Amino acid sequence: MQNQNAKQRQLEGYRVNNFGKPLTTNQSLKVSGDEQSLKAGVRGPTLLEDFHLREKITHFDHERIPERVVHARGYAAHGEFTLHKCMKEYTTAKFLQGAGKVTPLFTRFSTVVGSRGSMETARDVRGFAVKFYTEEGNYDLVGNNIPVFFIQDAIKFPDLIHAVKPEPHNEMPQAASAHDTFWDFVANNQETAHMIMWLMSDRAIPTNFRKMEGFGVHTFRLVNAEGKAHFVKFHWKPRLGVHSLVWDEAQKIGGKDPDFHRRDLWETIEAGSYPQYDLGIQMIREEDEFMFDFDILDATKLWPEEIVPVDLIGTMTLNRNVDNVFAETEQVAFHPGNVVPGIDFTNDPLLQGRLFSYLDTQLLRLGGPNFAEIPINRPVCPFHNNQRDGFSRQRIDVGQVSYHKNSLADNTPSPTPVDEGGYEHYQEKVEGHVIRANSPSFDDHFSQARLFWNSMAPYEKQHIIDAFSFEVAKVKSRSVRQQVVDMFCQVDSGLSAAIATAVGVKRPECTPADVTASSPALSMKKTIYVPDTLKVAILIGEGFDSTVIGNAVRSLRNSGVTVDIVSGTLGAVKGTAGKAAIANQTFTTAAPVLYDSIIVGGGTSSNPAEFNNSMQNYIEEQWQHFKPIAFTNDGARYIPMTSVQEGPGIVIEKNESDFNNAYITALAKQRFWERNIFE
User: Fold this and answer.
1) Domain for residue 143, yes or no?
2) Fewest CB atoms within 10 A around its CB: which of 16, 229, 429, 521?
3) Does the annotation mark 676 as catalytic?
4) DSSP states of 389-408 as a string?
5) What span, in angstroms and rounded, lies between the C-alpha atoms of 654 and 644?
């Protein structure tokens, strides 16, 4: 006991309570602002002299050893990019020159909040990072599956992540935003409003990596050979459409298979069903920079596709799995500052901070400045410079010279003139007072949040209400719950009233943003619907109709669908006409939430009660998650035992003259929201 008390006294001097104290740097310098980085004018570039920004982000970048602070849970694959439309008119980037040009690449998908051991189906933003190995060096397009972000200035990024990570006093909850500190941050940093609408939508629980969009988030520049620039945003459009899980399904999958998304990516590539995404760009002429009712440099804003169309210029195909997850997926180092001639930055203050942060992070995670020599990070073209030594140096540089300028090595390696491919930053005129402030054009936080809400289908709106109700109800502070409800009244009064009722606070009185417009591109309702790569479980017992099931299996596989035969035990299951099917899954080794649909084939078992219970469980869960279900004549006897009602998405052999085609058509639709009262 004495030793324990002595240890407590020893530690007491290290305990610090920040409550009520002024904000200072680590050198005890009181700071006058913590909301904006130091800029040359309110819309100018961030200045390197901002020691507070650099100290804050440097400390944040080094908070985790060795996993990433954010995007720790990730999975990746190799592939290639094929250009369909020559972009020479707009950029000198060689990988965007000449239709048909192919560039190798590496793509990593991830969740943001959770640790490496967290489940993959958590409600979260998904990272979507692509490294192009071009002939001019590596180009990294480092984005997310949501086109906007929580904050406008990088100086607030440590605060955002501190708020959303597990609370430090008990390290809970893991990989979840449903807790006090996150929603307290949201309510007190209202620039988050637009991003929160996306986070509470179905976009935050994608079906898999193959069925989610990717966005570069920031505004960049394309620059052509004449020095003419266009503002640009990058989009990845999945060929299989944009689809999501339902919340109950996402939670159950997280328990049944926390590796659900990485397993899906691995298995589809191994099967030769290569995921594809079309690269699209939105462009705005420099002279049109100020013609919109939003600031194009504000990362909390998107460019509505109806105003600035997306032009599809090429396709990414992921066609090879990694050989070693650590060596490739974990050691890959992305950086938005890895650009090639013809692609440049803007003064987006969130992007400006990322240009410092990513490089700084790699220095700690990957053991020093030589991370570019790790195989997955090496460019395909040779690189030469005067950088030497450091941890994990792999190159063996020969010769006595390691400086510029020199005469002993004929002044090599030497700079390359711009007209021969040397990189030159876009010459933008910058002037303004050195100031820590945001441009007033960044002040509107609710118009695009309202636009997003207006664009949702009825069932999508209900899912957003349900998500808010779940998340905010987890907040213990009544004050924070009330602040959140009051805040989102500025998006929609009906939305906030529904949340208020669910979380037990007063309904607010306010005037929502005066926005009546909608953007159909923001809704997932009108996406692509195809059966390719969907996964179907066929549930059978002894005595199933082997002819019907055999035809169904052939029809599904011909449509690119993966089929599992599920029964009470593994191995041969005898059907009619002396034929058997091989069950590769059992009711217990598989789970209904792991399938896009089921066919109830009927049959019997030596334990009828257990068999019937398993059948009913699979049927009920598929029904509750709005998925298509097919019943053979024998399987249809289970309908009265469940909640299933004949109607959309329910295909019954006795009712369909062409059972298989009817089922494939229903399967392609994937969800039947008509079962919901909100349609």
Assistant:
1) yes
2) 429
3) no
4) --TT------SS--SSS-ST
5) 16
CATH number, domain at 470?
A: 1.20.1370.20
Per residue in 549-607, pLDDT (tens digit) is: 999 999 999 999 999 999 999 999 999 988 999 999 999 999 999 999 999 999 999 99
Identify the active-site residue in 52, 138, 144, 335: 144
Place of tokens 């109700």: 469
CA angle at 572 for the pair 567 and 576, rounded to the nearest 5°: 85
DSSP 435: E
Position 11 scores a pLDDT of 60
Q: 494-521 b/e with 16+ CB inside 10 Å = b?
A: ebbebbbebbebeebeeebbebeebbee
Query: Measured in whole angstroms, how far is the alpha carbon of residue 60 from the centre of its chain?
Result: 21
Is 71 a catalytic site residue? Answer: yes
Residue of 52, 71, 261, 625 with catalytic role? 71
Cα–Cα distance, 365 to 68 (Å, whole number) = 7
Handedness of CA 653, 658, 660, 665 (dihedral sign): negative
- Strands across the sheet containing 562-567: 585-586, 562-567, 535-540, 597-602, 629-631, 650-652
Q: What is the DSSP letter of 325?
A: I
Cβ-based neighbour number of residue 522 at 10 Å: 24
Q: How many domains does the chain have?
A: 3
Predicted model pTM: 0.93
Give me the amino acid identity at 72: A
pLDDT of 113 strictly over 80: yes
In tens, the pLDDT along 224-266 reads 999 999 999 999 999 999 999 999 999 999 999 999 999 999 9
The pLDDT of 638-659, averaged and rounded, is: 93
Q: Are residues 202 and 269 in the same domain?
A: yes
